[in-house]
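Budget justification note: compute hours in this period were largely spent on complex prediction jobs such as the one shown. Inputs:
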Amino acid sequence: MTSVKAKTLRVGDGASAVVVPDTAPPVYKRRRKPLTFDKVSFFVVFLGLPLAIYLLFVIWPFIQAFGYSLTDWSGFSPDQNFIGLENYRKLFTDDIFMKAMGNNILLVIFLPIITIILSLVLATLVTVGGSSKGQIKGLRNSSFYRVVSFFPYTIPAIAIGIMWGQIYDPSGGLLNGILTSLGMDQFKSYAWLGDKNTAMIATMFVIVWGFIGFYMVLFVAGIKGIPAELFEAARIDGAGRFRTAVSITIPLIRDNIQTAYIYMGILALDAFVYMAALNSGGGPDNSTLVMSQQLFFTAFTKGQFGLASAMGVVLAVATLIFSGLVFLVNRLTGGDKDVSL
Amino acid sequence: MSTKIASQEMKALHFNPRKPAMTTGDRVVGAVSHTALTIWSLIVILPLLWTFMSSFKTSSEIFASPFALPSQWRFDNYVRAWSEAGIGSYFLNSVIVVGSALVIVMVLGAMCAYVLARYVFFGSKAIYYLMLAGLTFPIFLAMVPLFFVMKRIGLLNTLPGLTLVYVGFALPFTVFFLFSFFKSLPHEITEAAALDGAGEWRTFFQVMLPMAKPGLASVAIFNFLGLWNQFLIPVAINAAGPRVLSQGLAAFAGQMGYAVDFGALFAAVTVTVVPVLIVYIIFQRQLQGSVSQGTSK
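Corresponding output:
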């Protein structure tokens, strides 16, 4: 900061008197200047162009979706009748959509918790798994684990889905191959994705597999940001590893955990690509069907765009409720009272 | 001579407290940690290795034994996947669309973030919150109307249309991330540039943009991964257009029920996975750095 100021003075040189009173923010000075071509073209291009694209392709469709959701529009016919909340009534009495919503709720409860706990454990092992004497240290070769763990995040989700679809294959898949070679012959041709008892669990495993590494890296960064003295103080006070993790690490990276929870929850409410790749038909007995799949099918196969838009609105409301809940729970459990560094 | 001895002594002194004797507890914790992490690494690597190995096998070999090495390394699986299944052209389409969307969104995003962060004017806060809204709403909600927007402006099922939509949906994240970056650059620098006679345009391109390079690199990496992985947008608004990689891969896997060519399918997956994996291994330091940067803001 100081070096920059010195530089300004040097640049200002003789005219330094003009520069010195920088107590008033320079933004106010700007306002009074007359509009020049430079300035006008600058604003038009710098703000107008990105905003135009954003409004046309993102905001406008979002707004339209609310409107469509109140009509019986089929998409290809010109007639569009306003039918009020009829679409919503239809959705909430539709067993298949309710089943899909139930599956989404299942995902939203379990996916974030499992992913975050596992990645927190791995991140803790990597950062403070070393010697308990002297400086706080991570495990040896921990960077190898970090690099490897991140692999799945770089793989397109559709490729992850196809790959795991083959791994779960009843007859030629890797999983049953490993299990039978370990002597578990009952898995010789077990269809993990074809049995409604395991389809959802197997699918969740794939999603967790894809994201643990990303959150592990995120948490490692968070833990590394905690000053080492805090850990050392705790150690001197006689706190063991587990105690340190629970009383120091977790409270101090609380914001990271909240962010992770929200991201993962939004993903769980969508989950389209994984479901489409692993069980495009919704799984046995609709056991892996999610709302987004139902939306896609309703819109682009059945051509019921009004109804599909209503599904989109339900999905959006669910996302907002979920984010609100996470913030609320975090606040109620004292999230804002904690020391932040 | 004496200095050498002294330095050796220093070294010994210096090293001793850093290398304390491992207690039994440490060894146990270390061993358990290494075991857990090794098991996890195997869970990550084995599926990838298996996919890679299977991409050289025939379908019957794959079904005979999941572990056996291929009897001969069949590159014809790759040839079939690349040309007959069209993975090659999908790959090229993806490179074109993602590449141009990335360049456009970085330039436009940086411009927009710069204006929002450095100028106070009527509505600047509102625009910023409008951008944030785009981050929180599920992309699914927009898909149906977007289909008709694209149809009306004649860009449905075209690569330029896809590129523009990618730009639109990557914009909020880019602006949000770069906003704090431009906000933190000292105002004195803008003043110095203005005193030196630089206009608004020159100040941005010659002074501010180069200073934001670390932020730009992080956002570019994230946008690249996000856009390269994008599946829903192309499937919804580019269903009949020239396919991009994720879309083509899904279509190829979808056909598999009729014509069983698992070797080629594994080859197609490998072609999709390996280039990004290699790029990641080369740039993993920057990427892991940007994960921490992106979340501390």
